[in-house]
Specification:
Elements (H helix, E strand, L loop, with lengths): L3 H7 L26 E12 L2 E13 L4 E5 L6 H8 L7 E6 L2 E2 L5 H10 L1 E4 L11 H11 L6 H11 L15 H13 L5 E5 L7 H18 L2 E6 L10 E6 L2 E7 L4
Parallel strand pairs: 3-8, 3-9, 6-7, 7-8
Antiparallel strand pairs: 1-2, 1-4, 4-5, 9-10
Helix pairs in contact: 1-7, 4-5, 4-6, 5-6, 6-7
Protein backbone atom coordinates (compact mmCIF):
# COMPACT_ATOMS: atom_id res chain seq x y z
CA UNK A 1 0.00 0.00 0.00
CA UNK A 2 1.26 3.47 -0.86
CA UNK A 3 1.79 5.93 1.94
CA UNK A 4 -0.69 8.75 2.52
CA UNK A 5 1.60 11.53 1.32
CA UNK A 6 2.09 9.84 -2.06
CA UNK A 7 -1.62 9.21 -2.39
CA UNK A 8 -2.52 12.83 -1.66
CA UNK A 9 -0.07 14.07 -4.28
CA UNK A 10 -1.59 11.90 -7.01
CA UNK A 11 -5.19 11.43 -5.86
CA UNK A 12 -4.75 7.88 -7.05
CA UNK A 13 -7.70 5.58 -6.37
CA UNK A 14 -5.70 2.41 -7.01
CA UNK A 15 -3.40 3.21 -4.10
CA UNK A 16 -5.52 0.78 -2.08
CA UNK A 17 -5.18 -2.27 -4.29
CA UNK A 18 -7.46 -3.91 -6.82
CA UNK A 19 -7.83 -7.05 -4.70
CA UNK A 20 -8.88 -5.42 -1.45
CA UNK A 21 -11.98 -6.86 0.18
CA UNK A 22 -14.98 -4.60 0.20
CA UNK A 23 -16.22 -3.74 3.73
CA UNK A 24 -19.38 -5.83 3.46
CA UNK A 25 -17.38 -8.86 2.24
CA UNK A 26 -15.87 -9.17 5.74
CA UNK A 27 -19.28 -10.38 6.95
CA UNK A 28 -20.33 -13.85 5.87
CA UNK A 29 -24.00 -12.99 5.98
CA UNK A 30 -24.60 -9.32 5.22
CA UNK A 31 -28.05 -9.42 6.81
CA UNK A 32 -26.36 -9.99 10.17
CA UNK A 33 -24.54 -6.63 9.99
CA UNK A 34 -26.73 -3.73 11.07
CA UNK A 35 -26.46 -0.71 8.74
CA UNK A 36 -25.09 2.46 10.28
CA UNK A 37 -27.77 4.51 8.48
CA UNK A 38 -31.28 3.43 7.59
CA UNK A 39 -34.07 5.58 6.19
CA UNK A 40 -37.63 4.33 5.87
CA UNK A 41 -40.08 5.94 3.44
CA UNK A 42 -38.56 9.35 4.12
CA UNK A 43 -40.32 12.47 2.84
CA UNK A 44 -39.52 16.15 3.23
CA UNK A 45 -41.66 18.94 1.86
CA UNK A 46 -41.30 22.72 2.11
CA UNK A 47 -43.89 25.44 1.83
CA UNK A 48 -42.79 28.00 -0.77
CA UNK A 49 -45.25 30.84 -1.11
CA UNK A 50 -48.61 29.23 -1.80
CA UNK A 51 -47.04 26.10 -3.21
CA UNK A 52 -45.23 23.12 -1.81
CA UNK A 53 -41.91 21.62 -2.87
CA UNK A 54 -41.37 17.88 -2.39
CA UNK A 55 -37.62 17.63 -1.75
CA UNK A 56 -37.73 13.93 -0.82
CA UNK A 57 -40.42 11.47 -1.83
CA UNK A 58 -40.34 8.13 -0.05
CA UNK A 59 -36.58 7.54 0.30
CA UNK A 60 -35.70 4.16 1.79
CA UNK A 61 -32.08 3.07 1.94
CA UNK A 62 -29.52 1.29 4.09
CA UNK A 63 -25.85 2.27 4.33
CA UNK A 64 -23.49 -0.43 5.69
CA UNK A 65 -20.83 0.38 8.26
CA UNK A 66 -17.24 1.12 7.24
CA UNK A 67 -17.88 2.06 3.62
CA UNK A 68 -17.35 5.11 1.44
CA UNK A 69 -20.95 5.74 0.37
CA UNK A 70 -21.99 8.39 -2.13
CA UNK A 71 -25.36 10.08 -2.59
CA UNK A 72 -25.11 11.21 -6.19
CA UNK A 73 -27.42 13.42 -8.21
CA UNK A 74 -27.78 16.70 -9.99
CA UNK A 75 -28.58 19.97 -8.24
CA UNK A 76 -32.07 19.87 -6.77
CA UNK A 77 -32.23 16.09 -6.55
CA UNK A 78 -32.50 16.16 -2.74
CA UNK A 79 -28.91 15.23 -1.79
CA UNK A 80 -28.34 17.95 0.80
CA UNK A 81 -31.83 17.51 2.24
CA UNK A 82 -31.18 13.80 2.75
CA UNK A 83 -27.79 14.48 4.33
CA UNK A 84 -29.36 17.01 6.72
CA UNK A 85 -31.96 14.47 7.81
CA UNK A 86 -29.33 11.79 8.37
CA UNK A 87 -27.31 14.25 10.45
CA UNK A 88 -30.29 15.28 12.55
CA UNK A 89 -30.01 18.87 11.33
CA UNK A 90 -33.56 18.77 9.97
CA UNK A 91 -36.70 16.75 10.62
CA UNK A 92 -38.58 14.71 7.99
CA UNK A 93 -42.15 15.45 7.09
CA UNK A 94 -42.79 11.72 7.42
CA UNK A 95 -40.77 8.54 7.65
CA UNK A 96 -37.93 7.52 9.93
CA UNK A 97 -34.14 7.84 10.09
CA UNK A 98 -32.01 5.49 12.19
CA UNK A 99 -28.34 6.39 12.76
CA UNK A 100 -25.90 4.31 14.81
CA UNK A 101 -28.83 2.20 16.00
CA UNK A 102 -30.84 5.18 17.26
CA UNK A 103 -34.15 6.28 15.76
CA UNK A 104 -33.78 10.04 15.49
CA UNK A 105 -37.48 10.72 15.99
CA UNK A 106 -37.19 9.28 19.51
CA UNK A 107 -34.35 11.58 20.58
CA UNK A 108 -34.71 14.87 22.40
CA UNK A 109 -32.89 17.96 21.16
CA UNK A 110 -30.23 17.39 23.82
CA UNK A 111 -29.77 13.76 22.76
CA UNK A 112 -29.53 14.78 19.10
CA UNK A 113 -26.85 17.31 20.01
CA UNK A 114 -24.88 14.63 21.87
CA UNK A 115 -25.19 12.26 18.90
CA UNK A 116 -23.84 14.93 16.53
CA UNK A 117 -21.03 15.87 18.91
CA UNK A 118 -19.75 12.36 19.50
CA UNK A 119 -20.89 10.03 16.72
CA UNK A 120 -21.13 12.20 13.58
CA UNK A 121 -18.55 14.42 11.89
CA UNK A 122 -19.53 17.06 9.32
CA UNK A 123 -17.60 18.36 6.31
CA UNK A 124 -18.98 21.29 4.31
CA UNK A 125 -18.32 22.58 0.81
CA UNK A 126 -17.18 25.99 2.07
CA UNK A 127 -14.71 24.54 4.67
CA UNK A 128 -16.29 26.62 7.50
CA UNK A 129 -12.96 27.32 9.21
CA UNK A 130 -12.42 30.20 11.64
CA UNK A 131 -10.03 32.54 9.79
CA UNK A 132 -8.15 33.78 12.86
CA UNK A 133 -7.56 30.26 14.20
CA UNK A 134 -4.68 28.03 13.14
CA UNK A 135 -5.36 24.61 11.64
CA UNK A 136 -4.68 23.07 15.05
CA UNK A 137 -7.00 25.53 16.84
CA UNK A 138 -9.82 24.87 14.35
CA UNK A 139 -9.56 21.13 15.04
CA UNK A 140 -9.07 21.50 18.79
CA UNK A 141 -12.13 23.74 19.09
CA UNK A 142 -14.49 20.92 18.14
CA UNK A 143 -13.05 18.87 21.00
CA UNK A 144 -13.74 21.72 23.42
CA UNK A 145 -17.33 21.94 22.16
CA UNK A 146 -17.70 18.18 22.66
CA UNK A 147 -16.22 18.59 26.16
CA UNK A 148 -13.42 16.14 25.41
CA UNK A 149 -10.69 17.42 27.70
CA UNK A 150 -8.44 14.43 28.14
CA UNK A 151 -5.71 14.08 25.52
CA UNK A 152 -7.17 16.97 23.54
CA UNK A 153 -3.88 18.16 22.04
CA UNK A 154 -2.87 14.64 21.03
CA UNK A 155 -6.24 14.01 19.37
CA UNK A 156 -6.09 17.26 17.40
CA UNK A 157 -2.53 16.64 16.22
CA UNK A 158 -3.23 13.02 15.29
CA UNK A 159 -6.22 14.12 13.22
CA UNK A 160 -4.07 16.64 11.33
CA UNK A 161 -1.37 14.05 10.80
CA UNK A 162 -3.94 11.58 9.45
CA UNK A 163 -4.78 14.02 6.64
CA UNK A 164 -1.13 14.87 5.99
CA UNK A 165 -1.15 18.31 7.62
CA UNK A 166 1.03 17.83 10.69
CA UNK A 167 3.66 20.34 9.45
CA UNK A 168 0.92 22.93 8.76
CA UNK A 169 -0.74 22.68 12.20
CA UNK A 170 0.05 26.30 13.13
CA UNK A 171 -0.83 27.85 9.77
CA UNK A 172 -4.00 29.90 9.46
CA UNK A 173 -6.55 29.20 6.71
CA UNK A 174 -5.37 32.07 4.51
CA UNK A 175 -1.91 30.51 4.48
CA UNK A 176 -3.27 27.21 3.13
CA UNK A 177 -4.49 26.12 -0.29
CA UNK A 178 -8.13 25.20 -0.87
CA UNK A 179 -7.30 21.50 -0.71
CA UNK A 180 -5.38 21.97 2.53
CA UNK A 181 -8.26 23.91 4.05
CA UNK A 182 -10.64 21.11 3.18
CA UNK A 183 -8.26 18.62 4.78
CA UNK A 184 -8.31 20.73 7.96
CA UNK A 185 -12.11 20.47 7.85
CA UNK A 186 -11.82 16.67 7.48
CA UNK A 187 -9.36 16.54 10.39
CA UNK A 188 -11.88 18.51 12.46
CA UNK A 189 -14.57 15.95 11.58
CA UNK A 190 -12.22 13.12 12.57
CA UNK A 191 -11.14 14.60 15.90
CA UNK A 192 -14.00 13.22 18.00
CA UNK A 193 -13.46 9.75 16.47
CA UNK A 194 -16.98 9.56 15.06
CA UNK A 195 -18.65 6.49 13.60
CA UNK A 196 -19.97 8.49 10.65
CA UNK A 197 -18.77 11.45 8.57
CA UNK A 198 -21.26 13.37 6.42
CA UNK A 199 -19.68 15.42 3.63
CA UNK A 200 -21.83 17.78 1.57
CA UNK A 201 -20.23 18.57 -1.83
CA UNK A 202 -16.74 18.71 -0.23
CA UNK A 203 -15.00 18.97 -3.61
CA UNK A 204 -17.37 21.56 -5.06
CA UNK A 205 -14.94 24.48 -4.65
CA UNK A 206 -11.80 22.53 -5.57
CA UNK A 207 -10.06 21.84 -8.88
CA UNK A 208 -10.30 18.34 -10.32
CA UNK A 209 -6.86 17.16 -9.15
CA UNK A 210 -7.43 18.36 -5.59
CA UNK A 211 -10.93 16.90 -5.67
CA UNK A 212 -9.49 13.49 -6.48
CA UNK A 213 -7.08 13.84 -3.56
CA UNK A 214 -9.98 14.49 -1.18
CA UNK A 215 -11.90 11.46 -2.49
CA UNK A 216 -8.80 9.28 -2.12
CA UNK A 217 -8.38 10.59 1.42
CA UNK A 218 -11.97 9.67 2.30
CA UNK A 219 -11.43 6.15 1.04
CA UNK A 220 -8.19 5.91 3.00
CA UNK A 221 -10.02 6.99 6.18
CA UNK A 222 -12.69 4.34 5.64
CA UNK A 223 -10.19 1.54 5.07
CA UNK A 224 -7.74 2.51 7.81
CA UNK A 225 -10.08 3.81 10.52
CA UNK A 226 -13.31 1.89 9.85
CA UNK A 227 -15.31 5.13 9.78
CA UNK A 228 -18.28 5.36 7.43
CA UNK A 229 -18.15 8.33 5.04
CA UNK A 230 -21.32 9.48 3.28
CA UNK A 231 -20.63 12.09 0.63
CA UNK A 232 -23.17 14.04 -1.43
CA UNK A 233 -21.94 15.06 -4.88
CA UNK A 234 -22.77 15.29 -8.57
CA UNK A 235 -19.19 14.51 -9.65
CA UNK A 236 -19.03 11.25 -11.67
CA UNK A 237 -15.34 10.80 -10.79
CA UNK A 238 -16.33 9.75 -7.27
CA UNK A 239 -17.33 6.32 -8.60
CA UNK A 240 -13.63 5.50 -8.95
CA UNK A 241 -13.32 5.73 -5.16
CA UNK A 242 -16.71 4.84 -3.66
CA UNK A 243 -17.85 1.45 -2.39
CA UNK A 244 -21.54 2.12 -2.98
CA UNK A 245 -23.44 4.83 -4.89
CA UNK A 246 -27.06 5.84 -4.31
CA UNK A 247 -28.42 7.67 -7.37
CA UNK A 248 -30.92 10.31 -6.33
CA UNK A 249 -33.32 12.00 -8.74
CA UNK A 250 -36.49 14.00 -8.17
CA UNK A 251 -36.32 13.23 -4.46
CA UNK A 252 -36.20 9.45 -4.92
CA UNK A 253 -33.54 6.74 -5.01
CA UNK A 254 -33.31 5.79 -8.67
CA UNK A 255 -30.58 3.16 -8.37
CA UNK A 256 -28.07 1.63 -5.96
CA UNK A 257 -24.71 0.48 -7.32
CA UNK A 258 -22.14 -1.50 -5.35
CA UNK A 259 -18.77 -1.07 -6.94
CA UNK A 260 -15.90 -3.56 -7.11
CA UNK A 261 -12.21 -2.97 -6.46
CA UNK A 262 -10.91 0.27 -7.96
Amino acid sequence: MKDLSAMLKTGEGRAFGVNERLPWEAVADESEAAPIVRSEDLTRSYRVGRGQVEALRGVSLEIPSSVFAVIKGRSGSGKTTLLNLIGGLDHPTSGEVTVCGQRLSGLSDRQLTELRRHRIGFVFQSFALLPTFSAYENVELILRIAEMWRGRRQRAMRSLEMVGLGPWAHHRPWELSGGQQQRVAIARALATRPSLILADEPTGELDSVTGRQIMALFRHIVLQEGITVVMATHDPVVEEYAHVVYELGDGQVQAVRRLGGV
